[in-house]
Write a structure and sequence with these properties.
Blueprint: H1 7-17, H2 21-33, H3 41-53, H4 57-69, H5 77-80
């Protein structure tokens, strides 16, 4: 668990809220791994999905991994490979 929220988190969050796909991917990754913030798969999926919908390939790959391995969700090959 992260005890101190970093400046990187706040920067990523601001840009993600402004619709920046790269920042959305970064924020989703932070939530997924617990980097700079407490791990939260629900938030990770939310932000990675937003980035993936804008065509961010890395977000699509990470979402696929989440669904293949069932990280915080029920494993689903159908969702992993849309």
């Amino acid at each position: 668990m992260a005890s101190v929220i970093s400046i990187e988190y706040f920067r990523a969050k601001k840009s993600a809220l402004d619709g920046d796909a790269r920042a959305q991917f970064l924020l989703g990754s932070m939530y997924m791994r617990g980097n700079h913030i407490e791990k939260n798969y629900e938030e990770a999926i939310k932000w990675l999905t937003k980035a993936a919908e804008q065509g961010n390939v890395n977000a699509k790959i990470q979402l696929g991994s989440i669904y293949v391995f069932g990280k915080g969700v029920e494993a689903s090959i159908d969702k992993a490979l849309p």
